[in-house]
Design goal:
By secondary structure, this protein is an alpha/beta fold. The protein has four helices and five strands; from the N terminus they run βαβαβαββα. The model has no long low-confidence stretch (mean pLDDT 95).
């Protein structure tokens, strides 16, 4: 069963930028209520897209470098990376259908 993997400043390049598949990265924090709201949806999507898209979570409080590098100012922010580059961004809690459309377009 696929689940989002925790990614840190030190292993972000390896786990996200060098991944063989697109990667959805969930920038979140423990104290963020909207982040906790979308977490179950991100888990569900990681199951639905298992093998096609990888899923990662970055705790912005513990990993300020990567958050700063990608200009994360509001959380939750979901960035979709493809071939080592960010190709899409969703800020805030959005419906699952909206996120699925964004993920499907990353697979095209």
């Amino acid at each position: 069963m696929a689940h989002p993997v925790a990614v840190t400043d030190s292993d972000f390049d390896e786990k996200v930028l060098k991944a063989g598949t697109p990667v959805l990265v969930d920038f979140w924090a423990e104290w963020c209520a909207p982040c906790r709201m979308i977490a179950p949806m991100v888990d569900e999507l990681s199951q639905e897209y298992d093998g096609k898209i990888s899923f990662a979570k970055v705790d912005v409080d513990s990993n300020p470098e990567i958050s700063l590098k990608y200009g994360i100012r509001s959380i939750p922010t979901l960035l979709v990376f493809k071939d080592g580059q960010p190709v899409d961004q969703v800020v805030g809690a959005v419906p699952k259908g909206t996120l699925k459309k964004r993920l499907d377009s990353a697979l095209e």
